[in-house]
User: What shape does this take?
Amino acid sequence: MDANKYLNDISEIKNMMNRSSRFISLSGLSGILAGIYALVGAYLAYQTIYFDQAEMGSYKTLVISEQAVIKLLIIAGSVLILSVVTGIFLTVRKAQKQGEKIWDKSTQRLVINFLIPLITGGILILHLIEKEQFSLIAPLTLLFYGLAIINASTYTISNVRYLGVTLLVLAFISLWFIGYGLLFWAIGFGFCHIFYGAMMYFKYEKHS
Amino acid sequence: MKNLIQNINKTFDHRIRLGIMSVLMVNEYADFNRLKELLGVTDGNLASHAKALEAENYIAIEKQFVGKKPNTRYMTTPLGRKAFQEHIEALEKLIQNGN
Assistant: This one.
């Protein structure tokens, strides 16, 4: 009997278990780009608030004009849309290269499990905005986004779990720094995405 | 060495059967088309190998209707999980001994 055949059998078993339960074509590059968009967005937002004569760190006296609020919403919306479009584009491209199906049970499970905590948090945060209680918005966005990533990590490259845990820690720290939400967003959505995206990129993508 | 070879399960000694079992070990169930897609095999091929596994009582087959379409679901039995686990352990030991 050939030991090589047994080795092949084992790697075939591993491959099938992974392919049938996890979507492994998630693009690390799109994480890096999403992080860069977030940093640019944070910079633009900072400029908007700064020139609107408000000080960072003094949430109680933060007064910004309606015009500035609209500008902030446009910035945030653009960052979100750009990140999602880039993420889908690069991930689809990577999946095609690796001959993996894009919309099958693995991806459906990944998306559903990512969206459950995210939408839950989204509804809660919209409710807080309606009640004009803005102080917890930054910690909660980081918290629910972190939970969404941890929940989804069972269905994709398991290393993204570390990104989720980092975001949770950041969310808890930011609880003691209410008023510095923008800074924590820049760290969480900007630097963390770039850092973990780069790690994934060098680990899984650079060679192929 | 002889003991080790005895633990190698002849039923799993085929790429398609190995594939079917691997998928079903980590999924609650898989339907016919999903298995076909993952393994890249023809209908007839998949059906006959699934039957062989069912005959050993390693997998269970559940037929039902989704709307008007017939849908066949496959899942492992406790016996099948145990047998496959032992098969993997035997493979690992053989590889260790070979080196």
